[in-house]
Design goal:
alpha+beta; Phosphorylase Kinase, domain 1; Killer Toxin P4, Chain A; 16 helices; five-stranded antiparallel beta sheet; single chain; 627 residues
C-alpha cells in the first residue's frame, strides 16, 4: 500500500535534516551498474523498508529481496513521524552521489549509515553484518566536569546500570538519570541501545565493555559499536517517559574528598581510582546479570502467578504485547486431577494432552511435554513467543505456560472436537465431516495461514502444518496449533535455509526436506497435502517414508490425468458433495504440491481461488516426488 508513495518520496523529496547528522557511515568500494536491475531492486527495497519500520511495533524492519538484505531500526523512544523522517533522510544520504561518508554512497553495492535516532543498512548478503563487535565511533563534549573524579564515578554507575537494564529489556533500550553531585544540582542523563535481535548476553557485554571507553570526565560523550551504542549528557536528549526512576542514590567517595591538584601525581591517582572503579562496576554488572538469571529461574519454578487471577480472553493486551503468562503448577495439577488418564485427550511425540477444568468451571487444554520429548525448552519458548503475539480466529489461543518441578506445560483454550486427524481418519468419526464442514475447514486453514504469512505484525512460517495440528472448536471451525517449529520471516524474504530440519515427513516440501530451504511456499506445500487428505479422507503421514505417503499423491494425480478426479473423493461422502467444489479443491491441492516453489500459488491466491470461481486455475504439473 505504501510502496508507490515511498518510492516517489525517496527520489523527489528534499533531504530532511537529521538531529545531529550521521554518526557513522560506510560504503562498499564494489559498485553496481547504473540503471541495472540491482539498482531498481535496491530502490524498491529501501522504499519499502523505510516505510515499514516506522509502522512496526518495535520500529524495526528487515527484508531480503532479489539478493539484497536490508535493515532499518529506529530508537524506541522515537515517534513514528520522527522515525520516518530519520530513515528517509538516511535513504537520501545513502543514495546521494559520491563514495565518502559526507557525499553519500552512490552506487555502492552495500552501505550502512548510523544516525542518532535510526540505523539503515543494505548489502548483497543474506545475513546482516552488524553482529560484529567492531568499534565504529566515539565522541566527547568539549567541556570538562568541574569535579571530574566524582562526575566520572557517577557516570560509570549510571551507565553500568543502564547497560544491564537495556540488555534485559524486550526492545534492548534503556535510559536513566543521576545527580552529578555538584553545587548546581546538575543531572546526568544516560542511554544504552542494542541492535534489536542481539541476544541478552551479547547486548550486555557490548554495552558494558563500552562503559570503560566513555569520556567520563567530560560533560557528555558517546561510544558506538556495530551492535550497540552508549551516550550520556548533562541535558535531556531522549523521551523522558522512558525513565523509570528520575533519581539515583547518592554516591559517596571511599576515603573522603579528592583534592583538585594539577600535578601528574594527582592525575594518575585520579585515573587509577576511576579505572579500578570501572573494573568493579563491570564485575558487579556481570554478577548482577548472573544473579538476575538465577532469580528468573526461581520465579519460573515458584510460578507465584495464579491462573485464576488472569484474563483468559483472546484480546488480553498483555498477551498481545508478547508477554507470556506464568501459570501456577498447583492450579493446573488440580484442574487435570493430577493429570489423570480420565482427562487425557491424546498423545503425540512431544507428550500427552489433558483436559482441565478450573474451579470456576472454565475448560482448558494442557500440553505436557515429556522429559524425553524432542520438543524442549527452546520449542516451548518458541511457541509461547509466537502465540503470545498472534491473535486470529483460525489460530489456537495460548493462555499461558508453566515451568515448575521439572515440568514443561503449555495451556490453551479447550477445543471440544480435538484434532482434525481424529475425525478424518476414523471410519466412524469421519461421518461427522460432511462436505460443507470439510470445505469450511479448508477455507479456515487458508485464512489462518494468510494471517501468518501476510496479515500479522510478524511474518511467520509454521513449518509443521498437518492434520494433527489442526484443532476443531465446538462448531468445527479449524484452528492452527503447535508453533514449536515456527520461524520468523522477513516481509519480503524469498527463502531461508536451516541445518536443523524438523517436521513431519509426508507434509514437508521437497526443498525443505532435502536441502533445508524454507519459505511461505513450504507451508503452501503442506497445505496442499492437507487439502488432498481432507477431500479424499486418506492419510498422507508416514514417519518411515513407506509407500503409503506416496500413494495418496500418486492416486490423486493418476485420477486427475485420466479425467476421473472425482474418483479420489472420500467414499464416505457418497454423492453428498458439490462436484465443482471437490474438483476445485483437488486442483488447488495439486497446484500447492508442485515441486518448484515458484509454481505453487501464494496462500493469498489460494484464498481467492476458494472464494471466487471466476478466478481461472492453471493446469497443475506432476507433483513433487512423483517425477
Amino acid at each position: 500500500m505504501y510502496l508507490p508513495i515511498s518510492f516517489i518520496i525517496l527520489f523527489l523529496a528534499p533531504r530532511i535534516a537529521s538531529q545531529n547528522g550521521p554518526i557513522y557511515s560506510k560504503c562498499s568500494t564494489k559498485l553496481y551498474n547504473s540503471s541495472s536491475a540491482y539498482e531498481y531492486n535496491l530502490r524498491l527495497l529501501l522504499a519499502n523498508i523505510t516505510a515499514s519500520a516506522p509502522e512496526a511495533h518495535s520500529l524495526y524492519s528487515t527484508m531480503y529481496s532479489f539478493g539484497i538484505f536490508g535493515f532499518a531500526q529506529c530508537r524506541p523512544d522515537a515517534s513514528e513521524l520522527t522515525c520516518a523522517n530519520c530513515l528517509l533522510d538516511s535513504s537520501s544520504k545513502l543514495a546521494a552521489a559520491g563514495g565518502s561518508s559526507t557525499d553519500g554512497c552512490g552506487q555502492s553495492i552495500s552501505a550502512v549509515l548510523y544516525q542518532d535516532l535510526c540505523l539503515l543498512s543494505y548489502n548483497n548478503n543474506s545475513y546482516p553484518f552488524f553482529f560484529l563487535e567492531r568499534v565504529v565511533g566515539s565522541s566527547a563534549s568539549a567541556v570538562t566536569s568541574s569535579n571530574p573524579d566524582d562526575f566520572g564515578r557517577r557516570v560509570v554507575e549510571l551507565m553500568g546500570r543502564i547497560a544491564f537494564e537495556a540488555s534485559m529489556s524486550t526492545d534492548k533500550f534503556g535510559v536513566g538519570v543521576a545527580e552529578a553531585g555538584d553545587a548546581q544540582k546538575q543531572k546526568i542523563y544516560g542511554m544504552g541501545w542494542c541492535i534489536w535481535n542481539l541476544p541478552i548476553d551479547n547486548c550486555f557485554l557490548c554495552l558494558v565493555s563500552g562503559v570503560s571507553k566513555l569520556p567520563i570526565r567530560m560533560e557528555g560523550g558517546r561510544y558506538y559499536q556495530e551492535s550497540c551504542l552508549l551516550r550520556f549528557e548533562v541535558y535531556m536528549f531522549f523521551d523522558q517517559h522512558f525513565i523509570k526512576n528520575t533519581t539515583s542514590p547518592e554516591l559517596h567517595a571511599a576515603g573522603g574528598d579528592v583534592e583538585n591538584g594539577s600535578g601528574d601525581t594527582g592525575g594518575q591517582a585520579e585515573n587509577g581510582k576511576i579505572d579500578m572503579l570501572l573494573i568493579v562496576v563491570i564485575l558487579e554488572g556481570v554478577a548482577l546479570m548472573f544473579s538476575s538469571f538465577v532469580i528468573i529461574i526461581l520465579l519460573l519454578r515458584k510460578a507465584k502467578l495464579s491462573i485464576v487471577s488472569i484474563k483468559l480472553g483472546a484480546n488480553d493486551k498483555e498477551m498481545g504485547r508478547g508477554k507470556a503468562l506464568l501459570l501456577n503448577f498447583g492450579v493446573i495439577n488440580a484442574a487435570t486431577s493430577n493429570f489423570s488418564e480420565v482427562y487425557k485427550l491424546g498423545e503425540g511425540g512431544f507428550g500427552p494432552v489433558y483436559k482441565g477444568i478450573l474451579k470456576d468451571g472454565r475448560e482448558i487444554a494442557v500440553k505436557r511435554l515429556s522429559r524425553t520429548s524432542g520438543q524442549g525448552v527452546v520449542e516451548l519458548e518458541n511457541e509461547v513467543a509466537f502465540l503470545a503475539k498472534l491473535q486470529h480466529r483460525n489460530l489456537v489461543s495460548l493462555l499461558g505456560c508453566c515451568m515448575e518441578k521439572e515440568e514443561k506445560l503449555l495451556v490453551y483454550e479447550f477445543l471440544p472436537n480435538t484434532s482434525l486427524d481424529k475425525h478424518l481418519f476414523d471410519p466412524v468419526c469421519k461421518m461427522q465431516l460432511d462436505w460443507g464442514t470439510r470445505y469450511k475447514i479448508i477455507e479456515g486453514i487458508a485464512q489462518g495461514l494468510l494471517y501468518l504469512h501476510e496479515d500479522s505484525r510478524v511474518r511467520v512460517v509454521h513449518c509443521d502444518l498437518k492434520a494433527s495440528n489442526i484443532l476443531l472448536d465446538s462448531n468445527m471451525n479449524p484452528k492452527i496449533s503447535d508453533f514449536g517449529l515456527a520461524k520468523l520471516f522477513g516481509t519480503h524474504e524469498a527463502q531461508r535455509n536451516t541445518s536443523r530440519i524438523a517436521g513431519t515427513f509426508g507434509y514437508m516440501a521437497p526443498e525443505y526436506a532435502l536441502r533445508g530451504y524454507f519459505s511461505n511456499k513450504s507451508d503452501v506445500y503442506s497445505y496442499g497435502v492437507l487439502v488432498l487428505e481432507i477431500v479424499t479422507g486418506q492419510r498422507n503421514i508416514c514417519l518411515d517414508e513407506s509407500v503409503d505417503s506416496v500413494n495418496l499423491l500418486s492416486s490423486v494425480w493418476k485420477n486427475w490425468k485420466e479425467g476421473q478426479a472425482l474418483n479420489a473423493a472420500d467414499q464416505s461422502l457418497g454423492d453428498r458433495y458439490k462436484p465443482e467444489q471437490v474438483l476445485r479443491c483437488l486442483q488447488i491441492g495439486l497446484l500447492c504440491i508442485q515441486e518448484d516453489p515458484a509454481q505453487r500459488p501464494s496462500i493469498a491466491s489460494v484464498v481467492v481461488m476458494l472464494s471466487s470461481y471466476s478466478f481461472m486455475l492453471p493446469e497443475p504439473l506432476i507433483p513433487a516426488f512423483l517425477g
